[in-house]
Amino acid sequence: MSDIRDALAGKYAPIVIRYPSNIKLSFYELAELVQGHFPINEKFIIVAESFSVPIAIICAAKNPENIKSLVLCAGFATSPIKGLRRYIGRLLAPVSLRLSLPGVILKIWLVGKNADSSLVSRVKNIVSSMQKTVLIDRVNSVFNCDVREEIGKIEIPILYIRAKNDRLIGKSCYDEIKTANSNVELSELEGPHFILQKEPVKSAKIILRFIENF
Q1: Quick check: helix, strand or coil at residue 196?
Q2: Bridge partners (DSSP) listed for residue 44
Q3: How far, in Å, CA of 78 to CA of 184, rounded?
Q4: How confident is the model at residue 77 (pLDDT cuts 50, 70, 90)?
Q5: Inter-CA distances, 65 with 11, 15, 39, 55, Å
Q6: What are phi and psi of 150, to 5 degrees?
Q7: Which of 208, 188, 190, 187 is nearest to 198 (CA)?
Q8: In the chain, pLDDT over 90 holds for what percent of residues?
Q9: pLDDT classification of 1: cutoffs 50, 70, 90
Q10: Domain layout of the chain by residue ranges
């Protein structure tokens, strides 16, 4: 199965940054970790998906001299879970996240109902590899997220890829980002929340078409 790194590797050398699975870190602390991987003397772009989108926004808001553009996929600037759903989520998250997530739940919310077993297994393995306290802390970070001020500081071109069948992140999340920074281009793609994993080739074509304009 192809992944987004393979799809981009023909023209670029993707660097995947992994977050610690056993340490509680805020969005801002994770952004510091990410910034430590930035190339010093080469042009680069940031591609971020889902939970990583606020982190990428914080990094890009500092406008490093050699950053070329920012690509945000199925992400948010403030919590996508609002009102009563947020209150209920805060109550249920500590209990539900301590349980093993069945494949059917992953398909409904993350990878799509027609996802193959290898993708489901990959997501399951990533979730199960994290300490439960860290996983719960990251979900709480989503509930409390607000990086709209940072978005307004970004001066480079921004692409937002919206997954049309995303059950977690609605179009209002894109609208909020667009309101904070008018220099955002929208591209929509049929697929679930984890759009880069489910549609790596199609996603890569959209990304390459965007960044090669700059």
Answers
A1: helix
A2: 67
A3: 16
A4: very high
A5: 21, 19, 11, 18
A6: -65, -40
A7: 190
A8: 61
A9: very low
A10: 4-80+142-211
pLDDT at 99 over 80: no
Q: What's the mean pLDDT in 135-145?
A: 90
Average pLDDT, the chain: 88
More confident position, 32 or 89: 32
Residue whose token pair is 């984890």: 194
Q: Counting beta carbons within 10 angstroms of the beta carbon of residue 195, is it exposed (0 to 12), middle (13 to 18) or buried (19 or more)?
A: buried
Of the pLDDT bands very low, low, confident and very high (cuts 50, 70, 90), residue 90 is low
What pLDDT is stored for residue 123 in this prediction?
Answer: 84
Residues 178 and 184: beta-carbon distance below 8 Å: yes
H/E element, 129:
helix 117-129
Contact 184, 161 (CB under 8 A): no
Q: How far apart are CA 150 and CA 57, in angstroms?
A: 7
**What is the CATH code of the structural domain delimited by 4-80+142-211?**
3.40.50.1820
Task: Determine contact, residues 187/162, Cβ cutoff 8 Å.
Answer: yes
Q: Rounded to a whole number, what is the distance in angstroms from the first to the last CA of the chain?
A: 30
What average pLDDT does this structure show over 48-55? 97
CA-based max dimension of the chain: 47
Strand partners, 163: 189
User: For residue 211, which amino acid is it?
Assistant: I
Alpha-carbon dihedral sign for residues 93, 120, 55, 207:
negative
